[in-house]
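From the methods appendix. Each design record in this collection lists the tokenized structure first, followed by the designed amino acid sequence. Records were kept in a plain field format so they could be parsed without special tools. The example shown here is representative of the layout used throughout.

RECORD:
FOLD TOKENS (617 positions):
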């Protein structure tokens, strides 16, 4: 393959337009107006909410009100953050003739646990790409049939088998890690023979035109790496776990990453991305940790290189085959990102411009922030009931009336993005039960990963990563311990509802705790039912295996039903204070005990009607 003059950071590739542009807006002129107006509507709704929420009369306890405000502020910040990058989203453009003569390779990695039948489809799709390139397989331990197939189809093979110097216990060239596998490829072949390399996981099948879209950003000589959407949808019809992550991350892989292209830093996703080999060699190779994609992005930017998100470079892979695999991924990714934050980021921050320091600190802290948000929200419900205290001097109808406009506008923007095909995958639903359950599924195991990262940093230790099984290697397993955290979380909410009958100030939290308990009960039910149906299992023939799971679900259903029966109407009564002249419940005094000396107790009943007297009994 002919050589390509290395332009580095100073010059342009041969034939490239020195005036650019290399990036254009993701939106048409009409779309820019629509999204701009929608963002202004969201801003107006947010100001409407916060100008009401921050009224002095609503602050009935400094720390309590601050905690509640912090949770609401986090939600507002996430929405504002997303909209800010959405409005500056860019896509790469340019005539690929400017890359004529560039030496290009595509490489796919394979671990011993990944069956070769998955690789056949990926390699065939790589060979079919309509841009001159070499196709490589980086196999940890190639079998004879693998070598024979590759030789017959013109696929070159790289393997570090037998090379102790590429099986180190730590980065660089780490054993049992994709970074070490690819490090051997780059050291032995990639740096000297190629200018640009696109690397893919075994299951990610590049679609027609993929390589062209991955190459286009490299027309800009400042670009050292190119990210692309990670679309793990090939098994979405068969796995609700795959759908949950697919739907939850669709906006990130679409417009958010495209917004990072505009002078910020798109984040490589390990399933597939591309590098300029000169840039990769300059920074010392792929970054550390299981999340080498993220650390490589940081090292590239610290080295003065830029990244671009190729939003139209589509490769389709497999998501987690089952619930256990999804939890394993969440645990490992949270552990790895926090390890990068604690161990590696401090040495590279000084080489990043201020805006990118903030970006990488934020993205590496997103797991701890989300865990803190979910855990605090759960603890607030229990604390309010145990200590019978409110957190803000507002009524629930007034809160909803001021908060819902912001949510409604944000959901409308989500619907616009779906209509315009700007999610990845493009047809992702705006709302779905899988997407709504995903944060509840995720946070307990992300919390465990964070704690393990802290332990590793304090005490040291080797972390052996587990490759997520794919294809025939995936197993149908559901250890009951995986459901235990959700039983505890639901119990933390439902226990005070059943055990604390004399709550007055915080009685409205009864219903909120019931709702929270119902969510986690529904989560356990969804996990069990879909595990059985997706794997073709029948409960009556597998009772010994799934009896404990059913008992756990029955306990949660019983707790939820009992809580609703005992406290449901009472909580609804206090939640609906502030509806104006309408009421849905009423409170009646009943006498307990014989004669007239019995104690009077309040009894709450459903009573829909209109009543101007809103005084609380």
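DESIGN:
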């Amino acid at each position: 393959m002919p050589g390509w003059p290395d332009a580095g950071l100073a010059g342009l590739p041969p034939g490239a337009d020195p005036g650019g542009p290399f990036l254009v807006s993701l939106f048409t002129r009409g779309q820019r107006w629509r999204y701009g107006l929608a963002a202004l509507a969201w801003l107006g709704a947010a100001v409407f909410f916060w100008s009401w929420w921050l009224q002095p009369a609503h602050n009935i306890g400094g720390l309590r009100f601050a905690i509640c405000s912090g949770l609401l502020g986090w939600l507002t910040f996430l929405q504002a953050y997303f909209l800010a990058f959405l409005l500056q989203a860019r896509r790469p453009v340019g005539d690929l003739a400017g890359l004529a003569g560039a030496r290009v390779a595509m490489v796919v990695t394979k671990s011993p646990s990944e069956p070769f039948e998955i690789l056949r489809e990926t390699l065939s799709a790589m060979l079919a790409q309509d841009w001159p390139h070499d196709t490589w397989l980086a196999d940890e331990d190639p079998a004879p049939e693998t070598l024979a197939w590759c030789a017959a189809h013109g696929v070159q093979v790289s393997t570090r088998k037998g090379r102790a110097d590429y099986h180190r216990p730590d980065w660089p060239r780490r054993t049992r890690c994709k970074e070490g596998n690819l490090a051997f490829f780059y050291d032995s072949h990639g740096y000297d023979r190629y200018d640009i390399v696109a690397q893919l996981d075994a299951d990610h099948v590049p679609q027609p035109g993929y390589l062209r879209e991955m190459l286009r950003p490299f027309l800009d000589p400042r670009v050292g790496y190119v990210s692309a959407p990670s679309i793990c949808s090939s098994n979405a019809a068969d796995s609700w776990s795959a759908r949950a992550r697919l739907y939850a991350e669709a906006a990130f892989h679409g417009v958010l990453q495209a917004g990072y292209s505009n002078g910020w830093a798109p984040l490589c996703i390990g399933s597939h991305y591309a590098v300029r080999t000169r840039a990769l060699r300059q920074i010392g190779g792929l970054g550390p940790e299981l999340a080498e994609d993220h650390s490589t992005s940081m090292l590239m930017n610290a080295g003065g290189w830029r990244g671009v998100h190729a939003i139209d470079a589509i490769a389709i892979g497999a998501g987690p085959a089952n619930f256990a695999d999804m939890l394993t991924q969440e645990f490992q990714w949270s552990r790895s990102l926090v390890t990068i934050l604690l161990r590696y980021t401090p040495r590279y921050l000084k080489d990043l411009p201020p805006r990118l320091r903030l970006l990488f600190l934020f993205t590496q802290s997103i797991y701890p922030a989300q865990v803190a948000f979910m855990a605090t929200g759960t603890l607030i419900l229990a604390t309010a009931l145990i200590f019978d205290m409110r957190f803000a001097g507002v009524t629930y109808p007034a809160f909803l009336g001021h908060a819902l406009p912001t949510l409604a506008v944000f959901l409308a923007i989500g619907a616009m993005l779906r209509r315009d095909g700007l999610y990845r995958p493009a047809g992702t639903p705006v709302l779905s039960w899988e997407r709504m359950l995903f944060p509840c599924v995720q946070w307990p195991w992300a919390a465990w990963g964070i704690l393990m990262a802290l332990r590793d940093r304090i005490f040291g230790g080797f972390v052996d990563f587990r490759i997520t099984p794919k294809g025939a290697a995936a197993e149908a397993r559901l250890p009951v311990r995986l459901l235990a955290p959700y039983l505890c979380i639901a119990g933390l909410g439902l226990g005070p509802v059943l055990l604390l009958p004399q709550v007055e100030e915080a009685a409205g939290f009864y219903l909120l705790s019931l709702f929270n308990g119902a969510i986690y009960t529904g989560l356990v039910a969804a996990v069990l039912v879909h595990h059985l149906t997706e794997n073709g299992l029948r409960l009556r023939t597998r009772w010994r295996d799934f009896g404990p799971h059913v008992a756990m679900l029955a306990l949660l259903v019983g707790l939820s039903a009992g809580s609703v029966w005992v406290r449901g109407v009472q909580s609804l009564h206090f939640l609906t204070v502030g509806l104006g002249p309408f009421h849905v419940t009423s409170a009646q005094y009943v006498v307990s005990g014989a004669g007239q000396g019995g104690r009077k107790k309040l009894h709450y009943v459903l009573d829909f009607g209109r009543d101007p007297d809103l005084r609380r009994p």
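APPENDIX NOTE: Residues 5-19 have pLDDT under 50 and may be disordered.
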